[in-house]
Amino acid sequence: xxxxxxxxxxxxxxxxxxxxxxxxxSGRLKILLDxxxxxxxxxxxxxxxxxxxxxxxxxxxxxxxxxxxxLLLQLLRTHGRRQALSLLAPEIFAEYLEFxxxxxxxxxxELPFNLDSHWMxxxxxxxxxxxxGRLVPHVAGSVGYRLEGNGRVLVFTGDCGPGxxxxxxxxxxxLLLCECSLPPGARSAAHLAPEQAAEIAARAGARRLVLxxxxxxxxxxxxxxxxxxxxxEAVLASDLEWFEx
Length: 245
Ligand SMILES: [Zn+2]
Ligand SMILES: [Zn+2]
Fold this sequence. Notes:
By secondary structure, this protein is of the alpha/beta class. It has six helices and 14 strands. It has a single domain, classed as Metallo-beta-lactamase, Chain A (4-Layer Sandwich), CATH 3.60.15.10. α3 (92-101) links the parallel β5 and β6. It is globular, with a radius of gyration of 17 Å. The chain starts with a strand and ends with a strand.
């Protein structure tokens, strides 16, 4: 599996970082994790046509994580896509999709392809990749994802606060893509500071820690030592950076 960071930022508009979105290329499948502001443009910059995506995983209802869902569906509709698109998401998205379908008011927006929806938490096996979505502490229904394929494990926390659920989600990950919204020392039930992300990685036995969902002006000189203090070497994600899982 290869991971491309499409957007390493959070909800604040940031000249350096696009909104939360990630592309996973398993060799056979192209999988999107979240679809925040700027995701489709970043996908184009990563050299991947949106038509090539076959699975979309959404973590939660905050719009910085799905703002371009409607754009993607409209784009694929415009292209006359026939191939099914699998959607893994919390069940609230059933309502959002109804809302999208009703955009035309006097006519329903019909998609020319099957949007194959699976409500999370739960799991789904695709060719060569098993994806499970598990609840994490953030807003109700928020999930993080665990992707397993070819003996490798990629874990994406989505937005989350600290909790045993996150440690279990990340257990034995080859690469842990972990949110880090807070500066060192700050505390919230819904987000993580770098030393908390490092602690989760250490307890989970994750082999690599990549920090993302970074605020504007995130300072590696502050963030990375906070991880090192917990015995964990981390890196800050950058937009359009590729990682071999
Ligand atoms: Zn967020
Ligand atoms: Zn959120």
